[in-house]
Amino acid sequence: MPPESELELPLVHMRGIRKTYNPGTEAEIVVLPGVDLDVAEGEFVSIVGASGCGKSTLMNIIGLLDRPNEGIYFFDRRNILRADDDALAHYRSQQIGFVFQNFNLIGRIDAMKNVEMPMMYAGISARERKQRAEELLDMVGMAERRNHKPSELSGGQKQRVAIARALANEPKLILADEPTGALDSATGRMVMDLFHNLNTEHGRTILFITHNAELAEETSRVVTMSDGQVDGATIPAVDAMLAAQGK
């Protein structure tokens, strides 16, 4: 029987992920009771659920910002939970691009510098950073605003810059946490169309976390969460493969 790392696992492969705060105390809170999740390379998957259902906690674990108390997590066929914190930080910066509801842009620098920032930390040369940042801002329709600071941009423009920044280091996964939550419906529509384009035209793997069921239905697969429980989270072919291998 081959080890799990040698099987054809999806990009994100989680089994039995449990997150508990204050374990063993009277204040114990079980946020994730044992979640299974698969995301195949090239998929556009949404996780939908009401506030407080545990989806942000799950996002933090997927994005290597937090560790579960129990469970298995393979990212790109690597048993990622065996890595130390320094290795996780390096892997997170190189392989996962984050898009947040509130943009998280640095206010004192312009759009170009915001997009260049992840590449600078990755040790990419100034010339290559500038060229790639220009290409990414052009891709998201922000080339003409590249020298503007966040305070000079609308909400939709900030989010497009944030998406360009998320793509800077060619990550394996784009993790978008409520990316339309702070936008009006028309601007949110524009941002959602951009995600569709990144997925269909550029082959990006996107995990889209939202409370908006209508937007979630546009993605290729919808995972629903309620009180830490999930539905539609695994890929049947992966389950069958693991069962055949006795996993």
UniProtKB/TrEMBL annotation:
SUPFAM superfamilies attached to this UniProt entry: P-loop containing nucleoside triphosphate hydrolases
Nucleotide-binding found in the keyword field: yes
Name listed for the protein in its UniProt record: Peptide ABC transporter ATP-binding protein
Organism: Corynebacterium aquilae DSM 44791
CDD domains in the cross-refs: ABC_MJ0796_LolCDE_FtsE
GO molecular function, one term: ATP binding
Superkingdom, natural source: Bacteria
Coiled-coil annotated residue ranges, if any: none
One Pfam family this sequence matches: ABC_tran
PANTHER family, alphabetized: ABC TRANSPORTER ABCH.1, IMPORT ATP-BINDING PROTEIN
Residues annotated as domain ABC transporter: 12-245
Gene3D superfamilies associated with the record: P-loop containing nucleotide triphosphate hydrolases
InterPro entries to which the protein is assigned, alphabetical: AAA+_ATPase (IPR003593), ABC_transporter-like_ATP-bd (IPR003439), ABC_transporter-like_CS (IPR017871), ABC_transpr_LolD-like (IPR015854), MacB-like_ATP-bd (IPR017911), P-loop_NTPase (IPR027417)
Keywords: ATP-binding, Nucleotide-binding, Transport
GO cellular component, one term: membrane protein complex
